DNA sequence: GATTGTCGCAATGTTAACATTGCGACAAGT
DNA sequence: ACTTGTCGCAATGTTAACATTGCGACAATC
């Protein structure tokens, strides 16, 4: 995600838990564990050849990203996104992106903006669908990085994986639509940010989200009452 | 925090990690561990008479709340809020509260609004400063609960403890100011929400934050250069 | 005297065994 | 046939011992 670029970067070691979290995350995005699937600690620890400690820690971290939900003595399962969840992600993304745009316009360096533009430009070189989605997420990562707002980045990371999951579903619904719209939109977005034009960027981001939301929310999994799903936290 | 009210609530057991997290959090808010203090795993596990496992898990959870920061092989320390951190909290709160107000106006039930109003009314009955701050936080909790937006609530919880820390510092700077302004503002806020007047509520929330921000950012810890010209949100 | 290399301790990271819990299967009773 | 009670297993929660790492102290050298 964000690697220090330019400076040397303090070469800190990562620990097994991070490694495990990465592997499991990629497995989920790769389709090994479908939404709703159980993630058993012993199974993972055997497969990755580590003990249950780091696996537990990794699952906790994935839970923080919303990729996994777990209940007391009932283990962890891969998050499933209901229509309501998708709506929540959409509105929360909106709030965060709005702040991000303002922060970028005010505080981003030219290097930050160049990085955003470069990722937008690179989208064409995606080999397959998964890579395309990865680039999509990377673009948004770059925007949040450019905001120079640590807590905003953390808030984004708390829904990032869920958005990834969402996009994966979306591209499966209509890959063609995705490919024809997103790269261009990203380039426009990057241009508006480089020009530090907050108004234009805000409008473009709103359209960008609306587009994504409509595709999946329209024909895909629209009707489902879903009554109430709250729980205390 | 959020307690099931009305319904029975599925009586789930909590596990030691949650208990430990609560105890440590209260210890921090109670001043036992000052910002910057080290939280040693063995020390905590001895004090709370549990093993290091649950303590580790609890520290991870507190890290998710931003109350604690930890680095590889260097343990956990209580978060210290720099002026820049305060600015970040302020702007992020702004983004979240804006969404919250919209969601409340659109989706909250009358019971939700009553709960908000009741907490606002109850603020006068605070015995000491700590209780006052607790009520302050509880008010905002109620607003987010009323938004009926799970992920928004989670985003709030990711900064909630830091805001708590911030308020604790603030009330120490000028308790009188706090007491004369906040309860009234909360009541106005509750009234605007009950009237489902989004515009008024938005303005009031902005003023509410600005007030808190100015008190601490002005005379308190202002002088630090910090290289940033911070926003007006 | 300042610098650099080595050593040791203290704290975290990791592991594996033990305890507890929840769920489903099976059986007995109505 | 449906309900109810018991049992057993499988998975998570917890614990304590072991391994690794980073930092500071001390000493040797220039």
UniProtKB/TrEMBL annotation, chains A, B:
Matching SMART domains: FCD, HTH_GNTR
Gene3D superfamilies registered for this protein in UniProt: GntR ligand-binding domain-like, Winged helix-like DNA-binding domain superfamily/Winged helix DNA-binding domain
Alphabetized CDD domains for the sequence: WHTH_GntR
Domain HTH gntR-type: 14-81
Pfam name, any one: GntR
Alphabetic keyword roster: DNA-binding, Transcription, Transcription regulation
Protein name in UniProt: GntR family transcriptional regulator
Organism name: Nocardiopsis codii
């Amino acid at each position: 995600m964000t690697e220090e670029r330019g400076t040397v970067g303090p070469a800190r070691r990562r620990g097994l838990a991070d490694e495990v979290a990465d592997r499991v995350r990629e497995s989920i995005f790769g389709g090994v564990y479908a939404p709703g699937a159980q993630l058993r600690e012993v199974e993972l620890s055997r497969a990755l050849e580590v003990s249950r400690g780091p696996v537990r820690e990794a699952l906790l971290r994935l839970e923080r990203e919303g990729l996994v939900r777990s209940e007391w003595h009932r283990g962890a399962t891969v998050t499933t996104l209901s229509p309501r969840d998708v709506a929540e992600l959409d509105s929360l993304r909106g709030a965060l992106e709005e702040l991000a745009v303002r922060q970028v316009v005010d505080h981003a360096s030219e290097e930050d903006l160049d990085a955003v533009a470069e990722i937008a430009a690179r989208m064409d070189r995606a080999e397959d669908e998964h890579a395309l989605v990865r680039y999509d997420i990377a673009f948004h990562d770059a925007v949040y990085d450019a905001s120079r707002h640590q807590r905003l980045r953390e808030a984004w990371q708390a829904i990032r994986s869920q958005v990834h999951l969402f996009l994966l579903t979306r591209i499966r619904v209509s890959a063609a639509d995705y490919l024809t719209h997103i790269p261009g939109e990203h380039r426009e977005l990057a241009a508006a940010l480089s020009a530090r034009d907050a108004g234009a960027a805000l409008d473009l981001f709103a359209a960008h989200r609306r587009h994504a939301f409509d595709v999946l929310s329209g024909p895909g999994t629209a009707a489902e009452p879903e009554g109430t799903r709250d729980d205390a936290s």
